[in-house]
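Q: Could you predict the 3D structure of Global DNA-binding transcriptional dual regulator H-NS?
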Amino acid sequence: MTNDERKRLERAKKKSKKNNLTILNAHDIEYKHFANQSIVIDTANGAVCFYPTTNKIQYRGKVCIGDATQLVILLSVLSDFSRLPEVTRHLPLALQEDFIEKLHDVIAERRSEAQCTRAEPTAREQRIEMICQMLLKDGIDPTEL
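A: Sure. Here are the predicted structure tokens for Global DNA-binding transcriptional dual regulator H-NS:
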């Protein structure tokens, strides 16, 4: 990496951090800021770690890409999630079962999307293999390309 590329990366990280902290402060989110640039937000459902320079969110050992806007959404869901038993306790059982069915549908859809995303490289690899076979059939060694 050249010196110019390093400087560009540092500027991008500073800009990302500034934008993310502006969003967090606008939503009055209380957080602890650590020397390694990470931010920790304590919730009723566990701590959420946010890396504002690289736009990564970690919750319960899983890391995903997300900026402060997605973090705010996650924190909102977590706060509502902790109130879920209280809010739904007095709803009719049929309605609660309907909620569960819809949640299962959403989860199944997300799993399907994730599976398709993981399957794409496999399809690409199959196409590459097919092209290599066609080249070999025509007497061309793909390693020479």
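Q: Anything worth pointing out?
A: The first helix runs from residue 3 to 26.
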